[in-house]
Each structure stands twice: as structure tokens, then as C-alpha cells.
Amino acid sequence: xxxxxxxxxxxxxxxxxxxxxxxxxxxxxxxxxxxxxxxxxxxxxxxxxxxxxxxxxxxxxxxxxxxxxxxxxxxxxxxxxxxxxxxxxxxxxxxxxxxxxxxxxxxxxxxxxxxxxxxxxxxxxxxxxxxxxxxxxxxxxxxxxxxxxxxxxxxxxxxxxxxxxxxxxxxxxxxxxxx
Length: 179
Hints:
The chain has 179 residues and is α+β, with helices and mostly antiparallel strands. The chain has helices spanning 33-58, 63-91, 129-134, 157-173; strands spanning 4-5, 11-12, 93-96, 100-106, 110-116, 120-126, 136-143, 150-156.
């Protein structure tokens, strides 16, 4: 190791940059995120419960064990529809800085993610059909690591576009090989 010395003959270690702090990001999602999540859950509920009801109608012999499962799944979807979208809106946060992308997400388990800009390999904007109708977008930031991605759902489209543009500029100007 090559260390310079001071007058007291003690080695001076190179200064390392401060690690990125795990902290709650500053920005909330668009309020329409609640409607988007509610509609997504509703469509899933219709699909899944539709299959169960069809099986109930077609196969009389499985009704004794299928009916309790159908009611249980229905109750889970009902709770999901009533509480999950608003709760996620209240919990989820995001932020981009010149150094990193921060996100806080989760429903039962909260997950803080920090992706240093020097590790970013791709930045994508995604809009499903319901997001398009509601003027929302999802940003996907990926790294070389399987666990290094960040997905920020429920952003107003102009805000998502500006964040992606800014992140792209910063990532292009940041030295490193994104690995």
C-alpha cells in the first residue's frame, strides 16, 4: 500500500467518500397511484375469482373444498382492495440525486433501496394501459446485480420523463463501468 506520511511519520490513508445513507426518500407518488393500484387489484380479483367460479359451475364434485378456498381468496382480495393501495401510497417514496436513486416501497415488508448512479446500466420508462389512461409511468433502473434494480411506480408521466432524462445525463457523465 502506498501511503504518504506526515511529519509525525504516521501514514495518511486515502479519503474515502461517505457511503450513501439509508434514509427515507423525499418524494411521494402521484395520488392517482391509489386508483391505479385499486384497478390492478380489481382486475386480478375478477380473473382469479372468475376461474374459481367457473370451476365451481363446471365441476360439482370439487365444490366442497373449492368453495371455502374461493371465499378465502375473495376475502383476501377484498382486504387488498380496501387497504393496500392507500397504504402503499402512504409508504412508497422515491428520489433521485446526482449520486443515487433512492426508493422506499413495500406493503408488509418495507424495502429501502439505494442505487449509486455509477452502477446504473439502464433506465427505462414503462406505461401499461391503465397507467397510460391515468397519465402515470413506472421508472425501472437496473444494474449488473440481480438485486440492484429499483422500480418506481405511480409517477406522473412528465415527472418520470424528467427524472429519466436527468438520470441519463448524470449516468453518462459519471465515470465507472456500472458493475
